[in-house]
Specification:
2 copies of one chain form a homodimer.
Chain A (H helix, E strand, L loop, with lengths): L2 H15 L6 H8 L13 H14 L10 H18 L4 H6 L8 H13 L4 H22 L12 H5 L4 H5 L1 H4 L4 H15 L4
The structure holds a DNA duplex.
GO molecular function (chains A, B): DNA-binding transcription factor activity; transcription cis-regulatory region binding
Protein name (chains A, B): TetR family transcriptional regulator
Keywords (chains A, B): DNA-binding, Repressor, Transcription, Transcription regulation
DNA sequence: ACCTGAACACCGTTCAAGT
DNA sequence: ACCTGAACACCGTTCAAGT
């Protein structure tokens, strides 16, 4: 028994059965141990979920340093996305919890550093960070099915006869969602806006 | 007993005690009724939460028609924000659930219609809709404390001695978060990008 | 220091019985 | 058609007891 073994088993459980299926008792069973043993290494269910989120966050690779701001920011965004899509059912933990731990600051540093190096004043850099992050969180929540598609959950035929003119007109495009393309479309908007200080 | 009375009591309960505190049994107690009575009007806990989300969504006011696209989009975004901030603890229901109901299409129509009227081809209009929505979802999740601040959860002193250079340099700005200003900053980026088809 | 198991106070939902 | 209550199969966590 160790904290790490517990967190890894927890992540595996989320990956396989989904967040809603995770319980301390089932996790203990999976580890062949009494439920209460977990409490020696983890502070409770909430702390367990925080711990899993931190593992995911820590696994995001630091992209190679690049003198071009846009290149760096793009690589960071894609790295974050890849990490979340690697564990889609666990991603909401990262996208949804406020982590107090210091490891949660690594991605902040990764985004802030290139912005400051590019000449951004710190206040603008923080605004930029937060805008990009909001977009990333919103987009990724949608990708992992934890946020509304606002239309995507409906069938084409249903959209067409909704009685809503704009929805009907755009029905063929609403009915499908190419996450990759949507991600690039939105990311380009953010990166264009942050092109220079 | 009626579906509406149940949904209203459910919303009140979320407002007062938070999402995690909602249970079918407590809701029944609040209504002075047997827990199982609720099942005659609502399909279970998940359907109850969907129903509450739909109520919130339906309460978003339709802004007055304005020939200016930017004005219209801005009014829609602010209306959506106001509706979520009016029920911050319930907002994650809207921001987090995929509603299959037809009422979930009203906001889509509201955003799509002005974009089409402004000359957007339908495919571009849907991209624009999704990018704006992703930003709104991400920002509002942060505002209602359901998404990471990535830094905001930390104290100033802690940020300064984090050992991370960019984080230290920007610490005073990371330590505070003016949600209003962040919202306007990000929204402006999105609206600028959507200024013309 | 770590593990155990009984116990407490909860859950959502099924089902048979009532009116 | 709607309400009820017992019952089932779960929860997270406390606490006293063990090693």
């Amino acid at each position: 028994m160790s904290r790490e073994r517990i967190l890894l088993a927890g992540l595996a459980m989320v990956d396989e059965e989904g967040l809603a299926a995770v319980s301390m008792r089932k996790l203990a069973r999976r580890l062949g141990v009494d439920p209460m043993s977990l409490y020696n290494h983890v502070d409770g269910k909430d702390a367990l979920l925080d711990g899993i989120a931190e593992m995911l966050l820590a696994a995001i690779p630091a992209p190679p340093a690049d003198p071009d701001l846009r290149e760096t920011m793009s690589a960071l965004a894609h790295g974050f996305r890849a990490a979340m899509l690697g564990h889609p059912r666990a991603a909401p933990l990262v996208l949804t919890r406020r982590l107090a731990s210091i490891t949660a600051l690594a991605p902040v540093e990764a985004v802030l550093a290139p912005l400051l190096a590019a000449g951004y004043p710190p206040d603008r850099a923080v605004h930029g960070l937060r805008a990009v992050l909001a977009f990333l969180v919103g987009t990724l929540m949608r990708e992992v099915e934890a946020a509304p598609t606002f239309g995507g959950a409906h069938r084409l035929a249903e959209l067409e006869r909704s009685g809503l003119p704009a929805v009907s007109a755009a029905a063929p495009y609403l009915a499908v969602c190419d996450h990759e393309a949507e991600f690039e479309f939105g990311l380009r908007i953010m990166l264009d806006a942050l092109a220079e200080p």
